[in-house]
Amino acid sequence: MSDTTIKPRIERVPATEQLVQKLPVLLVPVLALAGLLAIGNPSTWLTLTVAGLAMGMMIFIMASGLTVVFGLMDVINFGHGAFVTVGAFVGFTVLAWLAGWTASPSVLLNLSALLVAILAAMLITGGLGYAFERVIVKPVYGEHLKQILVTMGGLIVAQQMIHVVWGPDEMHLSRPEALQGSIVLGDAAIEKYRLVAVAIGLALFLAMRHILKNTKIGLLVRAGVENGEMVEALGYRVRRLFLIVFMTGSALAGLGGVMWGLYQETITAHMGSEIMVLVFIVVIIGGLGSVEGCFIGALLVGLLANYTAFLAPKVALISTIALMVAVLMWRPQGLYPVVKAK
Amino acid sequence: MLIKLLSGDTPRSGLLAVLLLVILISLAFAPFLFPGTRSLETAAKICIFIVLVASYDLLLGYAGIVSFAHTMFFGIGAYGTALALSTTGPTYGSMIWGTAAGAIVAAVFALAIGLFSLRVKAIFFAMVTLAIASAFAVLVSQLSWLTGGEDGLNYSIPREFKPAFKLVDEKIFDVRINGKLLLYYLVFFASLILFLTMLRIVNSPFGRTLKAVRDNAFRAEAIGYRVVWYRTTATVLSAVMAALAGSLLAIWLRYTGPATTLSMEIMIDILLMVVIGGMGTLYGAVIGATIFILAQTYLQNLMGVAAEATSAIPLVSTLVAPERWLLWLGVLFILSVYFFPSGIVGRLRAGRT
């Protein structure tokens, strides 16, 4: 008997190919640099870049839930925008109740009011996500056409219910005292709220990456994405995992809604469906189902939208479409396509 | 002769045949049966939407493609005619070339979108078209020097179609035979011809291949059909039909703006009409469009009565308020996707046996 052991053979991906795979990471700095060259004035550029990053982070928060839900469950939720709107309305209502906290000059009280509003919004949209999954999405797993139609129907109903609960008028609210105004850095004025948005978005991205890459839940989610049946066979309840992911995705939409609403300071029942266009573009650019791709896509869209809004206002929304077309020409499945075993 | 006109696609259900006949007769004699401006407006809208919804069904029901860019093509047709009429004056010539130009531009757009993105998954295509359509709507409202922006375009149509024009002096059955009536019949017959053309298309070998591609694209490809080619052709055909419906709307309203042609609400309305009427059968478009537009126009009055009656109960009265009619339609929509995936028409046909 020979005692040679059989070793698994791992094929090394050539360095050049690895580089090509990682290439999209470079897009954000390249775009920022191009923006600097086109704008010329460094302080204007800094203001626009921070604004773009903040916008990108907020879009990322809204898009991340959608893309993870798609990656794991193969469900596209056209009603995702409704969660964004509901989150914004709940957040605004809570902040209006806490007017004493938001108006006080104490930074701590301001931030805790924001935190309470965000938690309430996430709780409610998470619960709504539970109901949505059980009632609307569950019967149509695996049927894309019906998913699109049914979630669209859910969107209509949810939008109308917002009218019933909050009335047809738009709501205005100023940000908490501490988040108003801007910091002057050299010649560039940077709104404080944008810095908060960047911080929250970045923290969320890092947390999601950590959970997906390093924890058991993340392992199960990734395995479920690759091959749900296999995970089921190993004794894990994939369906329950689906439900948790769906609720998390909805709660993230609620968070995004509060943040976007405070950014605009005005919310309407249609804000969710309006922002969904950008969210879809981001999800497509990133490659459906990929968190990293979604993050890069969101930053690209945010930066490009702000740069073009400054350089050539009329082409701002068209520019994001052009970006999507360009990315799809380069990588037809998006920046980081999620390869499914199905 | 009749069978041939319907391309062999008979209603195949007694009740459905009766319903269709009632709708046809009501629309054909609408000016005489339902006098009044509001009912004539409703009838013309039904005619135009039957064409629009049928053209969408060509895509959704027969080819299994979910597109959110259908109002874009509708808008292209409408703006084509509107621009021709407002720049070169109210002549038949400009009406015709505007309509043709709109249809050609719509076909080119559809070809580009189709070749570019039909190879991908249904979900992907739905999202791409949604993004493109919303960008187009923004573009139209931004280019105000050309399109009039949010205000849209007002223009004149040939004299013979204006209410002031009198064909005969006496009234027939108490109805004045004026230009408005002529215009209604132009809309009616154009819609009828377009509808019969689409019926012809879906019942041709091409239509049958589309269904094969819809049901199993992989197998259709395997037996030698170029799936992408069929899907793209379906997209182009439906875009041209939608553009023609848009031209009819432009001529009828003498006004074209983003709200009447390009808004997301119209896209959702079309989706609701197709699903409630029945996907994959053009008669579903007739039933769906008629029911929906009647509900839109008259259900609100009914709900107003209901809201009055329940005004003592706080939540219920808000739920049945006239503005909330779309809520109930949304609920109906979800229920019909689950329980009647083939819509009213499919239900009626299944119940025949």
Automatic annotation (TrEMBL), chain A:
Q: Which InterPro entries match?
A: ABC_transp_permease, BCAA_transport_permease
Q: Decide whether keyword Disulfide bond is in the record.
A: no
Membrane-crossing residue ranges in chain numbering: 20-39, 45-70, 82-101, 107-132, 144-166, 193-212, 241-263, 275-304, 311-330
Q: From which residue to which does any coiled coil extend?
A: none
Q: Where in the cell is it found?
A: Cell membrane
Signal peptide coordinates: none
Q: Which domain of life is it from?
A: Bacteria
Name the principal localization, coarsely classed.
Answer: membrane
Which CDD domains would you find in this protein's record?
A: TM_PBP1_LivH_like
Record's keyword terms, sorted: Amino-acid transport, Cell membrane, Membrane, Transmembrane, Transmembrane helix, Transport
User: Which cellular component appears as one GO term in the record?
Assistant: plasma membrane
Record membrane topology: Multi-pass membrane protein
Which BP terms does GO give this entry?
A: amino acid transport
The keyword Flavoprotein is annotated on this UniProt entry: no
Q: Which GO terms describe its molecular function?
A: transmembrane transporter activity
Q: Which family is this sequence assigned to?
A: Belongs to the binding-protein-dependent transport system permease family. LivHM subfamily.
Recorded protein name is: Branched-chain amino acid ABC-type transport system, permease component
Which organism encodes this protein?
A: Roseibium alexandrii (strain DSM 17067 / NCIMB 14079 / DFL-11)
Write the lineage as a comma-separated list. Bacteria, Pseudomonadati, Pseudomonadota, Alphaproteobacteria, Hyphomicrobiales
TrEMBL record, chain B:
Q: What Pfam families has UniProt attached to this entry?
A: BPD_transp_2 (PF02653)
Q: Which UniProt keywords apply?
A: Cell membrane, Membrane, Transmembrane, Transmembrane helix
**Example of a GO MF term:** branched-chain amino acid transmembrane transporter activity
Database matches in CDD domains? TM_PBP1_LivM_like
* A cellular component term, taken from the record's GO annotations: plasma membrane
Q: Which domain of life is it from?
A: Bacteria
Q: Which residues cross the membrane?
A: 15-34, 46-76, 96-116, 123-145, 182-202, 234-255, 270-295, 302-321, 327-348
Q: Where in the cell is it found?
A: Cell membrane
Q: How does it sit in the membrane?
A: Multi-pass membrane protein
Q: What InterPro entries does this protein map onto?
A: ABC_transp_permease, LivM-like
- The name under which this protein is listed is ABC-type branched-chain amino acid transport system, permease component
